[in-house]
Amino acid sequence: MSSRALLAVALGLSTLVGGHALADEGMWPFNRLPKAELKQKYGFEPTDEWVRHLQRSSVRVGGCSGSFVSGSGLTLTNHHCAQDCLTRLSTPAVDYFKRGFSAKAASEERVCPGYEIHQLAEITDVTARVQQATQGLSGEAFHRAFKAESAKIEKACATSDDLNCELVSLYHGGVYELYQYRRYRDVRLVFAPELEAAFFGGDPDNFNFPRYNLDLTFLRAYDAGKPALTPDHLSVSKTPLQPNDLTFTSGNPGSTERLRTIAQLQYERDHQLIETLLSLARYRGFLIEYGKRNAEALRVSKSELFGVENGFKALHGKHRALLRPEFFAQLEKSERDLRRRVAQNPELAKQYGGAWDAIEKAQQDLLALQPDLDWIEAPGAPRPPWARTSLFTWAKTLVRGAEERDKPNEQRLEEFADARLPGLTQRLLAPRPLDPQFEIAKLAFGLSQLREELGTDHAFVKQVLGKASPEELATKLVKGSRLGDPAERKRLWEGGKAAIAASKDEMVVLARSIDDVGRKLRARYENEIESVLTKNSELVAKARFAVYGMTSYPDATLSARVSFGTVRGWREPGKVIPSFTTIGGIFERATGRFPYELPKSWVEKQKQLDLSTPFNFVTDSDIIGGNSGSPVVNRQGELVGLVFDSNIHGLGGAYGFDISVNRMVAVDVRAIAHALDVIYDADRLNEELAGASQK
Amino acid sequence: MSSRALLAVALGLSTLVGGHALADEGMWPFNRLPKAELKQKYGFEPTDEWVRHLQRSSVRVGGCSGSFVSGSGLTLTNHHCAQDCLTRLSTPAVDYFKRGFSAKAASEERVCPGYEIHQLAEITDVTARVQQATQGLSGEAFHRAFKAESAKIEKACATSDDLNCELVSLYHGGVYELYQYRRYRDVRLVFAPELEAAFFGGDPDNFNFPRYNLDLTFLRAYDAGKPALTPDHLSVSKTPLQPNDLTFTSGNPGSTERLRTIAQLQYERDHQLIETLLSLARYRGFLIEYGKRNAEALRVSKSELFGVENGFKALHGKHRALLRPEFFAQLEKSERDLRRRVAQNPELAKQYGGAWDAIEKAQQDLLALQPDLDWIEAPGAPRPPWARTSLFTWAKTLVRGAEERDKPNEQRLEEFADARLPGLTQRLLAPRPLDPQFEIAKLAFGLSQLREELGTDHAFVKQVLGKASPEELATKLVKGSRLGDPAERKRLWEGGKAAIAASKDEMVVLARSIDDVGRKLRARYENEIESVLTKNSELVAKARFAVYGMTSYPDATLSARVSFGTVRGWREPGKVIPSFTTIGGIFERATGRFPYELPKSWVEKQKQLDLSTPFNFVTDSDIIGGNSGSPVVNRQGELVGLVFDSNIHGLGGAYGFDISVNRMVAVDVRAIAHALDVIYDADRLNEELAGASQK
C-alpha cells in the first residue's frame, strides 16, 4: 500500500541476544551480505557481479521499491506505489483507477508529475568523518555540527541534478555511509490494471493470505526525453518457481526498530502508537463517510482512505506485537544482557554505560513536548490531519524555503540543503489536481481536532482559529489560496523572501504567521531530544559492536537492502496456509461487490484464462513497509515475483523476526505475463519483458 | 454526558494499602456512611433522618442521577441525561435541542417515552442467602445457581409493577444487598434550555473547568396521570455556597475498579480500552462527517455524536491514568501487600490464596474469546456499531424474549427475569422516531467494520453478509423492517414464539438466524469466564475483609451512593483554577460559532442579567460517570448545585482518587434560579422550586 511509506519515517532490538542473525532473518545492505551463511545454509554464494547486477537493477520510487525489467528503463513496481500518479492524471471524466491504463505506444506513455526513480550507484563509508565532526559535542552544538557535516558531504557528492546523495546512518550511528543514487526525473506511466484487480479484497484482505492481487504498475524512466538506457535490468525467469525455492528480495525497507532501547519501545507502545492509531481511526471514519457524499467525492478521497486504512492496519499490528508480554519480555532480556556485559567491563561501562539512561530521559522530555510538536510542527509523518492538505504543505515549504535558501548550506534545515533542493523543487512544482471541497472538508475536520487536542485555550489554537469555526477558517483558507496553480507556486518559489512577504494568499499568510512557533518547537526537539537520541544511540551501537562484534544487520532506514528466504506457507491454529494461490481463486472469492468485485476485463476473459496459473505466493523473507514493489529473484538473479505485502504476523517485524509465521507476499511473474497476454492484450509490454527491444 | 452511562456497564483496587478511605474519598452506600470520620474531620454528624431524607429525595433516571425538588414530583437532572427524551419528541420541524422546551402549564408537560424514575425505598442484606446458594459450585453450575437465586430474590421483592428490585453486589461479592426502588413509569418533560446553553463549549470544553453550562432539565414524575406526591424532596438553599463549604452529593456512580486485580487492570489497559477507543474514534469520524450531509442528518445524529465523544474522552482519560507508570506501580504495590498478608496466614492462604491466579487465567481465556464476543454477542456496552441501530436492538430483544419468557423464571437470561420484564417492556414499546437513512448509514458502517474485525472468511461474517455488500444488506434490513412502528413491536412481543417464527420482517429474520451463535458465545462467557471472575472476586473481597476489616467503601455499581467534599479549585502547573465561574464568563468565552455559540435568548437578555451570579463550581468530591444529574446539598440538606461533569483529572477516578486534582463540576442553584427568572421567564417553575404548590 502506498502509505506503507508511513512506516518509513517514524522511528531497533535484535531478536537475538548475540546480535547474530538467524538464517533468513535480516535486511542486509548490498555491501554487507552474509555470504558465508548463505553458502552454509543454501550452498549458494552470490558473486560480486551477481550482487552488483541486482543492486543496479533495483530502484527506489518514492517511499517504495521497484526494478528495471528491460534495457529501456521499463520499471516494475506496485499499483499502490503509483496511486499518486494515477490520482494526478485522473479527472472526473477519466478515472484510471476504474479503467486502468495501458499505453499502446511509447507516445502514449504519460508523465507522472513529481515522480522520480533512484538507482543506487555507489556506497562510500564516511563514518570517521561524521563521528569526528561531532566528537565531544552535545545538545544544540551536536545537532549543528552533525547537520553541517551532513550537508557538506551530501553537497560534495551531488555534483549534478542527475545525482541524489544521502548520508545513511546504519546501526543508529555506528556506521555512516554515503549512498549516491542515479536520479531519473522523468518518469512515465506505461501500464496499470484496474484498481479492482490490483487491490482485490481491499482493506479486509490487506495483510492477509491467501491473496489474489495483480498489484503492479509499469513505469518507465526517461532520460533527455527518451527511454533511459538501463543495461542492468532483471530478466523474467522462465524456470517455474516452486515451494522451498530460495529467493532474494531487493528493496528499500523503511524502518525497523530492532536495535532501539526498551525506553524507546515503551514510549512507542504506551504513547506514540496509541495516539497515532486513534487519530488515524477517527480520520478513517471521516473519509469513509466523506466518500458517500457523491461519486466525485469518492473518487478524490479513495486513495487517501486506502493509505489511511493501510497505515492503520500496519501500526495496529505493530502495536499488538509490542503488547504481547512474552515478546516484550524477550526484548527486555536482550537489553539486560547487553547492559550487563557493558557494566562488567569497566572500560565499556565508562564509555557507553550511561547511554540507556540518557535515552530514557530524552523520551521523558519528549512526552511533555509531543502534543505541541505533533499538532503544530509535525516533523515526521504521519502528519496531523489539519496539515494533510496539499495547499498547506506547499505554503509551508514556500515560506520556509524562502528563508532557508538565503542561509549557507550547512546552516539550513536539512530538507533545504543543496543536495536535497532538486528533489524538493520537483515535488513542489509538479502539477496536482485539487478538489477544493475535499481540501476544505479535510482542513475543517483537522482544525477541529487540533482545537480538541491542544485545547481551546492554547495560544496556538487561539492564534490560528481566532473566533472562526474550523469550517469557516478552512473555507477562507482554501478559497483564498491560489497555490493549486503550479505557476503560482513557481512564482513564489523563485520570488524568494520578497515574494513571500508580499503574498496575500491566505494559505501563505497562515504559514507565515505560524512559522516561528513551529521552528521553535522543531529547534527544541532537535537540540534537546533528537541530538540526545542520536548521540546516545550511537554509543549503544558501539557498545553492541564491542560486545558482539559487527555480525548482524542494521535496522532498516529506507536505504537499499537485500532479504532472502524460501517459498513456503505457514501453520495457523487448525490449518495450513499453502505457499501459492492460483488465478482461479480470484473468481471463487469474487462476490461482485466492492471490495470483492472483479473488473469487467477479467469477467469477460475468464474462459480464456488458465485458471491454474500461479497468482500470489509467500516466502519467509524478512521485509517491511518500503519493500512494496521489490523484485523477487531466484539464484540466477532472474525475476520471479513482485513484493506487495506481508502477512498479518509480519506487522510485528518492526521489532523482531519470527520465521515460523512472518511471511512476505508477492505476485508471481507467471500471473503477470498471463494477465498481460490474455486480459490486457498488452503484447508490446510482454514482448519487451521477454527481451525484445522497445517498439 | 448521557453516555457516561457507557462507563456504567463495563468492569477495583483501593488506592489505600490499608483499604481505609481518606476523608473526601469514597462513594458510600446510604447504609454505610463513614459518620465517625465526618464528625472528626468536619464536625458534622448526619442524623438518620438527614440520611433518609437525602436518600428518598434522590432518584435514578436511566444511567443518570437526579433529585425531587418539589412535593409534586418535579425532578432535576442534567440536560444530557434527558437528551434521549428530547430526541424522541423532536421532529424535523420542531427541534427541542435548538429551541429548548418550557411547559407553561401542567397540561403542556410531555411524556418522555420509555423514561422511568426510580427512588430507592429499602435496602436489605441478602449476603448469606446468595453465598449459600453458590457454595461449593463453580463454572456453569455456579452461574446457574447464582442466576436462579438472584431471579428468585428479585421476584419475591417486586410485588407490583410500581416496584423495581435489584440484587446489588458490593465489594465484588463480599456483600449482597437487595435494593428496592419505587418506580415512576410516567415521566414528563417540564423544562429544558437550548443545547447551546446546556452544552456550551461542547466536546472541546467537556471534562474541563472553568465551565459555563446550564446543563439541566426538569422532568416530573407522574402517578395515575397526576403529578406524583413526593413529600421527600430537596429545598433550594437560600444560603450562598462559599469556597471551602462542605457538600454532599447523592447519586448512582456507574462503575469504579478500585478493587479489581492487577490482571484485570492489565487486560483493560492493554486490550479492552484500546480496542474500544479505536472503535469509538472511527465511529466518531463517521458521525462528524455524516452530520454534514444536510441539516436533518445533523439533527438526527448529533445526540449520538455527543455520546460517542463523551465516551471517547472519558475512556481515553481512564486509559491514560492506567498508562502512568507511577500510578500503576502503586496499584501493583497495593495488591502485593494484600497477597503477602494472605500468604503469611495459612488459613487465609488456603481459602483465598488461589483467587488472583484464577482471575488471571480467566482474563487470558477472555482474550481469545473477546473478538467473537464483542462483535457478535456484545453482552455489555459499548455495543459494536453494527448493532447500534434501534431496529436491531428491538429485533434481538423480541426474538430472545419470546423464547426466554417460556422458561421458568430462574432459568432465563437475567434481563428477561420476571422482576426485570416490566422495565424491559416499557423500553421496548416506547415510541422512538427513526431516520431510515441514518439507520442504514450506521448499519452499513458497522457491518463493514464487523467484516474487518472478524475477517471476511469468518463463518459469522459469511452467514450475515453472504455475497451482499454492507450497504446492500443494511438497506435491505432497514427497508424490510416494520419494527419502527411500536404497534408492530407490541404485536410481536405479545405474540410470543409463534409470532416471531412467522415474522418475515428482515430484521427479525436476521436476529433469529444469529440468535443461536450469540447465545453460545454468551454461555461460554458466563460459564467459563464470568463465573470464575465472580467467584474469585468474592474470595479476594473476603480476603480483604479478613486482612483489613470492612472499613472502606465498595466499588461503584450504578447503585445509590453518597460522596462528600469541599468546594475548592486546584493547581495546574503555573496556574490556580478557582472554584467558581460566573454568568459573565460565558459571554466572554462566546465566539458566535459552534460550540461557543450562545442561544438567542441569552444574547437578548445579557443586559438584564447579573453577570456576577455564580454559574458553575467544583468540589473535591469523589464521583464518576452515572453521577450526572446528582444533587449537591449542604449540611442542612438543601440543594446548592447540580453535578454534570468531572474535570479531566477525574477520569482516572475509576482506579483511584487523587484529592489534589480530581474535581466534580456542578451548576450552582443561583444560576439556575437567575436563568429561569430572567432568560426563560419560567415563573411557574421558579415558584414551585421556591416551595409554592404547583399550579
Radius of gyration of chain A: 25 Å
Largest interface: A-B, 42 and 42 residues
Give the overall pLDDT of chain A as a whole number. 92
Structural class of chain A: alpha+beta
Shape of chain A: globular
Number of strands of chain A: 21
Low-confidence runs of chain A = 1-22
Q: Helical proportion of chain A?
A: 40-55%
Strand content of chain A: 15-25%
Count of helices of chain A? 24
Could you state the oligomeric state of the chains shown?
homodimer
> What kind of sheet is the major sheet of chain A?
11 strands, antiparallel
Give the N-to-C terminal Cα separation of chain A.
32 Å
Detailed description of the structure:
Two copies of one chain form a homodimer. By secondary structure, chain A is an alpha+beta fold. Chain A is 46% helix and 15% strand. In chain A, strands 2, 3, 4, 5, 6, 7, 8, 9, 10, 11 and 12 form an eleven-stranded antiparallel beta sheet that branches. In chain A, helix 6 crosses helix 20, helix 9 (262-290) runs antiparallel to helix 10 and helix 13 (355-377) runs antiparallel to helix 20. Residues 1-22 of chain A have low confidence and may be disordered. At the A-B interface, helix 8, helix 9 and helix 16 of A face helix 8, helix 9 and helix 16 of B.
